[in-house]
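User: Hi! I have a protein structure encoded as tokens and I'd like to know what sequence might fold into it. I'm fairly new to this, so please keep things simple.
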């Protein structure tokens, strides 16, 4: 059983593609006639050119839309795809779940003829996000334990460029920092169940921090402390798109 067989039941609802982030991903894959989506989950951010999705969790595959590209069960470290079988390989918020990052990247390079695009995060930046810094150190520990350093990925993808992926204030994809300007959302168990760092943390270790957040929202202390966020449309919370030509 994969981690998403356990926590991924509602991902088709809580983890919907955000159109602005999707546009950045699509731009990175511009001109690609065939794409393989690796660690594809329920299909978020798949461009129209996607011809195959590879996903280890049957729970996630079952949530893919009927019109989505066909999906096969498999893992990044041993892709069930031929050499140079697609123009591009896409990996959205998945490398941190791979058991062998070097093997996974080598497989992306094997199957992609022209381009690789990976969405991940820089833990040094994300660690300063107010939720994990001030309220939920247990979630911060989960995030830090899974994070793959950006320089490591760049070393494995020579010549890759790294693009910041700012998070819109009304982001429709419920990943970790999606609700940076909507703090009350983190008090919703359904929201937390769709965010892997929160879903994988021990609920007992989150309870005090969530209680503190609820109290600060009720008293107005959170809004006073983070008044500067109210005028921002987007926030750099550390998410990064790594794009490499093969």
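Assistant: Happy to help. Inverse folding works backwards from shape to sequence: for each of the 246 positions I chose a residue that suits the local structure. Here it is:
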């Amino acid at each position: 059983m994969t981690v998403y067989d356990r926590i991924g039941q509602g991902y088709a609802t809580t983890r919907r593609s955000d159109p602005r982030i999707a546009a950045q991903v699509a731009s990175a894959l511009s001109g690609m006639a065939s794409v393989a989506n690796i660690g594809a989950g329920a299909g978020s951010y798949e461009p129209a050119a996607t011809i195959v999705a590879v996903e280890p969790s049957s729970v996630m595959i079952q949530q893919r839309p009927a019109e989505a590209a066909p999906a096969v069960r498999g893992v990044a470290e041993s892709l069930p795809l031929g050499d140079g079988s697609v123009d591009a390989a896409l990996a959205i918020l998945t490398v941190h779940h791979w058991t062998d990052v070097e093997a996974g990247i080598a497989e992306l390079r094997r199957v992609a003829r022209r381009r690789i695009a990976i969405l991940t995060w820089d833990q040094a930046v994300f660690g300063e996000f107010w939720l994990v810094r001030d309220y939920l150190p247990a979630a911060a520990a989960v995030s830090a334990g899974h994070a793959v350093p950006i320089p490591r990925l760049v070393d494995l993808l020579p010549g890759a460029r790294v693009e910041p992926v700012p998070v819109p204030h009304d982001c429709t994809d419920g990943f970790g920092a999606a609700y940076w300007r909507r703090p009350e959302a983190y008090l919703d168990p359904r929201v937390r169940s769709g965010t892997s760092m929160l879903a994988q943390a021990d609920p007992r270790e989150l309870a005090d921090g969530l209680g503190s957040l609820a109290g600060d929202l009720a008293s107005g202390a959170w809004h006073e402390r983070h008044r500067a966020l109210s005028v921002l449309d987007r926030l750099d919370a550390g998410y990064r798109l790594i794009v490499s030509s093969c």
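A useful reference point when you look it over: The mean pLDDT is 93. Feel free to ask if any position seems puzzling.
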